[in-house]
Write a structure and sequence with these properties.
Its main location: cytoplasm. The chain is α/β, with parallel strands linked by helices. The chain has helices at about 85-120, 125-130, 135-160, 180-200, 205-220, 240-250, 260-270, 295-300, 325-330, 350-360, 390-400; strands spanning about 15, 40, 50, 230-235, 255-260, 280, 300-305, 320, 335-340, 360-370, 405-415, 425-435. It has 11 helices and 12 strands. The strands form 2 sheets. Strands 1-3-2-8-5-4-9-10-12-11 form a 10-stranded mixed sheet, with helices on both faces. A two-stranded antiparallel ribbon has the order 6-7.
Length: about 450
């Protein structure tokens, strides 16, 4: 089985046939691509539905470990008031920009290593002799870069034809242009998402982030009292899709939602093209030149996927939408459960998220949340950012009518952590389960 193509950059509300038959995504990579002006849903039956997407941008990194440094924001674009031809032009340019970033990775990283070599060679000869393994180590990093680039090229080769209604492939000149620091940081962060979602190395993190959510789903929708296939669960900000995949593995009908093309391209690859466990490897830590105890730690490989993504049961109902959460999900009283993990702080205004969740949950449905409140738009000029404390968020939820059933204010976890690093970030996350009353209109 394979998962249908998970996105398209068309605003047309039409149905598409994906390039492959479906089995099935994904980031929580915080932040996003403002120019992604489209939505699509990839379903098990092989249909892709399209819609529209709102703006979003990736946050700055130094504040939070789960996302990469933003040196410059992407070009701000909106879709309202724009004619169709101009919209499609912008969509095409954005698509190609992300493809270009995947292809530019090797050039960017080799420049970084070459700079390290140049600086080393400025040292006095007697100091260089003290470090005979320094230059050979850089050569090893270069080999790792080439390997990563090979994987990224495979991903790109697959995604250029993943949309049948649009021709967003190569622009014809084959030229690789310099990518922005923003795009390169996003891509490097995406490599770490493979660790978090689809490697044995990421299991402790998944156990601390995903398992508590899964436990609450099983507790609230036990198979001895529910037909699991009729329990509809939504996972906004699904990253590379592991949490949604695990929920679908249990028999629930589950849909992931993601807006970043970096994530969509990568989730398409891992869910559709990876069928043997640990058949691929990446070197996700080679970008980290600081806080390494040993030189070998920097070039430590990670293998993926740790499970066969195609091992979902034949009757599993697993789907994916691409686009902005608030734009796509407007139909009221649809979902039995909404599961958010490291997601609600991606909002310009978290009250908007609460409002959407309240509307789309069925009466009696539950919202499970686990994550920090590291607001992604804080300190970004010309961006709306409403930073609420958890106390304020709790007050808003209660005023909407939610009933709190579970509440933990200090769930310790990490996000794409490098366990080999001398520096690690830990979050004391809030976890809650709230219920929309049965008598809600």
């Amino acid at each position: 089985m394979s998962v249908a193509a998970a996105c398209s950059l068309s605003r047309k509300g039409q149905l598409l046939q994906p390039p492959v038959k479906a089995m099935r995504r994904g980031s929580r990579e915080p932040g996003g691509e403002e120019a992604e002006a489209a939505v699509a849903a990839a379903d098990w039956d092989g249909e892709v539905t399209l819609g529209s997407e709102r703006r979003r941008r990736e946050p700055q990194q130094q504040q939070q470990p789960q996302q990469e440094v933003q040196q410059q924001p992407p070009l701000a674009m909106t879709v309202s008031g724009r004619d169709e031809e101009e919209e499609e032009k912008l969509e095409r340019e954005h698509f190609r920009r992300i493809i270009n970033a995947f292809r530019y990775y090797g050039i960017n990283m080799h420049e970084r290593v070459n700079r390290a070599e140049r600086q080393f060679r400025t040292l006095p000869a007697n100091q260089q002799k003290l470090l005979p393994q320094f230059l050979p180590h850089l050569d090893q990093i270069r080999k790792c870069i080439d390997h990563n680039q090979g994987i990224l090229q495979i991903i790109v080769n697959d995604c250029t034809n993943m949309f049948e209604n649009k021709e967003y492939g190569d622009d014809g000149n084959g030229k690789i242009s310099p990518a922005s620091t923003f795009d390169m940081d996003k891509l490097k962060s995406t490599l770490k998402q493979f660790v978090r979602d689809w490697s044995e190395t990421g299991k402790p993190e998944r156990d601390s982030c995903y398992q508590p959510i899964i436990n609450e789903i099983v507790k609230n929708f036990p198979k001895d009292r529910w037909d699991l296939s009729k329990v509809n669960i939504l996972v906004p900000g699904a990253g590379l899709g592991r949490l949604a995949w695990e929920i679908a593995m249990l028999g629930y009908t589950c849909q992931g939602n993601e807006w970043s093309l970096f994530m969509l391209f990568s989730s398409n690859f891992v869910l559709n093209r990876c069928s043997e466990t640990n058949s691929y490897k990446l070197y996700p830590w080679i970008h980290q030149f600081s806080n390494n105890r040993r030189s070998a730690d920097q070039i430590q490989p990670v293998y993926f996927p740790d499970v066969d993504p195609h091992s979902l049961p034949p009757d599993a109902n697993f789907s994916m939408t691409a686009g902005d959460f608030q734009e796509i999900y407007a139909e009221c009283n649809i979902w039995d459960c909404i599961a958010t993990c490291f997601f609600i702080d991606t909002a310009h205004n978290v009250i908007d998220y609460i409002d959407t969740i309240w509307k789309i949950l069925k009466p009696g449905g539950i919202w499970i949340n686990l994550g920090p409140l590291l607001y992604h738009f804080e300190n970004l000029a010309n961006e709306l950012s409403i930073e609420l404390s958890y106390e304020d968020i709790k007050s808003v939820m209660l005023q909407y009518g939610f009933h709190i059933e579970v509440e933990h204010e200090s769930v310790l976890t990490t996000y794409t952590v490098n366990e080999l690093s001398m520096m690690k970030y830990y979050y004391e996350c809030v976890m809650f389960v709230v219920r929309k009353p049965e008598n809600s209109i």
